């Protein structure tokens, strides 16, 4: 079975960890009453989101380079293509909508305190609230697509037994071939 390039596999699983972190930070924030803690959680959520944006853009730019041939044909291949495209679209748009919501709320965004983005939106409470709602809707849409992605991977592994999951699964041990 032809595998993805090792760096593609690493970026995939790094994305998974960052997505779990972003969702966890967002959900934790809902249950916290302390304004300072909520602000801190929002800061880390936005930093993780920005990292996901950068990683997703990189993955999209080099997506086809050295990729294994698709196993699917016809309708299943089309569905896989559309669902992957949807996940990438959401992985790119979610952080951008989040940054816009921050700016409309009157907060500047900086990446790890090193690079400050120019302010493109004036403070506008209604716009900020609308963008937060859109951000949440897009986030749950992404979670749903990821659920379908996981279900499809399990279908390949457990029912079709075609080894598709091994293409993206991390290699085991120092001597494992990647």
TrEMBL record:
- Give TM segment ranges: 7-28, 40-62, 74-102, 137-159
This entry carries the following GO cellular component terms, namely: plasma membrane
> Coiled-coil regions in this chain?
none
Tell me its cofactors. Answer: heme b
User: What membrane topology does the annotation report for this chain?
Assistant: Multi-pass membrane protein
Protein name per UniProt: Cytochrome b561
Chain ranges of the Cytochrome b561 bacterial/Ni-hydrogenase domain: 3-170
Into which family does the record put it?
Belongs to the cytochrome b561 family.
Task: Identify the keywords attached in UniProt to this record, alphabetized.
Answer: Cell membrane, Electron transport, Heme, Iron, Membrane, Metal-binding, Transmembrane, Transmembrane helix, Transport
Q: What are the subcellular locations of this protein?
A: Cell membrane
Q: Which terms in the Gene Ontology molecular function aspect does this entry carry?
A: electron transfer activity; heme binding; metal ion binding
- Give the UniProt record's GO annotations in the biological process aspect: respiratory electron transport chain
Q: What is its main location?
A: membrane
Source species taxonomy:
Bacteria, Pseudomonadati, Pseudomonadota, Gammaproteobacteria, Nevskiales
